[in-house]
Hints:
This protein has helices at residues 3-9, 13-24, 30-37, 57-70, 89-98, 118-132, 147-153, 169-175, 178-181, 195-206, 224-236, 238-241, 243-270, 272-282, 288-300, and strands spanning 45-50, 75-80, 106-110, 137-142, 158-163, 184-187, 213-215.
Amino acid sequence: MSELVSGILKGDKRSISRAISIIDNNDAESLKIIHGIFKKTKNASTIGFTGSAGAGKSTLIGRIATGFHSLGYKVAVIAVDPSSPITGGALLGDRVRMMSISDEIYVRSLASRGAEGGISRSLRNVVRILDAAGYNLILIESVGAGQLEIEISKAVNITVVIFNPQTGDSIQAIKAGLTEIGDIYVVNKSDLEGAAILFNIISDLIGDDKKLVFKCSAKMNKGIRELTKALLDLLDDEKYRAREKSILENELRDMILNVIKEKSIEKIMKSQEYGKLVNKILKKEVDPYSAALNFANKIIV
Length: 301
Ligand SMILES: Nc1nc2c(ncn2[C@@H]2O[C@H](COP(=O)(O)OP(=O)(O)O)[C@@H](O)[C@H]2O)c(=O)[nH]1
Ligand SMILES: [Mg+2]
């Protein structure tokens, strides 16, 4: 077993951080690390927090992390921000806002960019590292709007969507499809004007199941206990635990497709027929549609 893997399994923070960087950069060593730790993972629970910048996600996560920590959970927090480098301002701000939380809560940001599906792939593997290191609850903050949130919501057990009365959030959120991905909706900044109205709008939008919509103030530490209780209930609920299977199905399918895609590209480029086909199309001996279909059919077998 490599030193890095045994460090992770002992919960050594330096080993965890190094391993996460390796995964985040998609370095070749990633495969070995995941292979080394996978059997020691115990299915840690994951909760994703999503919502526009400034909604109060980091502040709220800090409160919730502290709440779960005091209940005996081993909590880790990951902030996913593909738009800014690791030292970027937003994440620095997050660090400051989370500074007051316990040393025992591991906080880390991920910057992985690049390939489609790259975020959820590295996220899942980072969760595995934390899980193998002994963390049993992983809170994930995603920064951005739209596609990334939807991708992350498919990679976690529970999704919390956070709204904020300071911006035209509700309309933005509907446009970005955020009203469809949440298990719990939170109107934060209830200490500010407009929060009560926004709460009513969101409650109407989400439907009759009002217990899934919460109002709180992360800043004033109000409504956090109720929210934490609701999250605890969902974590206990078989329905949300069972999502692990569909998360894995998605992940496995994406990985298989990625490998197939990479190998196919190699095969296509090396094929002599490919070069000839282009010339045939140029001479109008064959149309591109039929040429592509015939070629692909031959490659797949
Ligand atoms: N008034 C008020 N401000 C808040 C509340 N929660 C967070 N904030 C402030 O909103 C700003 C953005 O918060 P942050 O947690 O960084 O939001 P994020 O971008 O969603 O992570 C900060 O200045 C926070 O202090 C709240 O409940 N009430
Ligand atoms: Mg934040």
